[in-house]
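Notes, p. 3: input format for complexes.
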Amino acid sequence: MSSPKLFIPGPIDVSPATYAAMSRTMIGHRGSEFEALYASTQTGLQDLAGTSRPVFLATSSAWGVMEAALRNLASKKVLNLCKGAFSDKWFDVSKKCGLEAEKIQVEWGQPICPDAVRAKLAEGGFDTVTLIHNETSTGCMSDLEAIAKVVKSFPDVMLIVDTVSSFSAVPLKMDEWGIDVLLAGVQKALALPPGLAIFAVSEAAMERAKSMKNRGYYFDFVEFEKNAAANNTPSTPAISLIFGLQHILQTIAEEGIENRFARHRSNNALIHAWAQRHNFQHFAPEGNRSVSLSCFHTPAGFDQSTFIKNLKSKHNFLINGGYGKIKGITFRISNMGNETTATMNELIHAMDDVLATM
Ligand SMILES: *Cc1c(COP(=O)(O)O)cnc(C)c1O
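Output follows (358 residues plus pyridoxal-5'-phosphate):
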């Protein structure tokens, strides 16, 4: 049997058309053909990010840029907003970079409260905040607009936002909301194979970066800006992935961004309705639930590993059995990327079939 279809929250299912686009004949990256390829990605990415700034392409996973944003912007003290596996780890990464860092830690599954951010920043000394918009480990989405508004009222504080599992699934308005760095990896909501990260940097953040010592080379924001002016990247990029990105952005333009957001909402609602039928409880509170994935408590006495195993062996679909310290006690289902009502219903029928035999 072929590998299972992925309904885990990343990497997610990649369409045959995307693979086909990625298998185009290789080109050199210092030439007009690559420059045209690079340029073709900009409008689509800018629309999704809600920015008129260039959107840079980094050959790395999301963590490359998550770390780079700290190295390019933070010299005083970082405030890491922690609410799950990825956001908690960002606090560790701040310290691993040798930075002074504090955190606001909420219980996993809960959102970040804007007022708590205001109170913490008012203590003073901070120059950078990190936020994970959609905490993929818990299925909880924080109110990015409200938090950005708070951070913006502290003019010397830069806001770095990870939109790895929300980019292209929900509206993002980087410029309007005043986000300084917005980043995403492509293997989540963009439905590409892993290996590429995209990010945009505000003018103020770029000025800050220029004044930072020891930015290194590979992830130097200033190098990215210089090369982007010529539709290029500092070092040899993952060109095949950029072919794939170009294809995905074409499909998004054809579908229409608003239609894409609506499709994510309705696909997500199908999973919510399924969960309600089986009395599965959400891990995140109502009002802060992700629309690109769902995370549920594993009910007492429910044999989650057999459910997931049988779904795979009988129907060749893969869902996820929880991440980090909530592995086993939660399970997660993605509806990111190219899923349709039909494909979500295939998954739902398969899950119902497996549940009926348990
Ligand atoms: C998956 C994920 C990451 C880590 O991405 P990598 O591509 O593995 O570096 C970071 N943040 C969020 C919200 C994620 O879902």
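The first strand starts at residue 5 and ends at 6.
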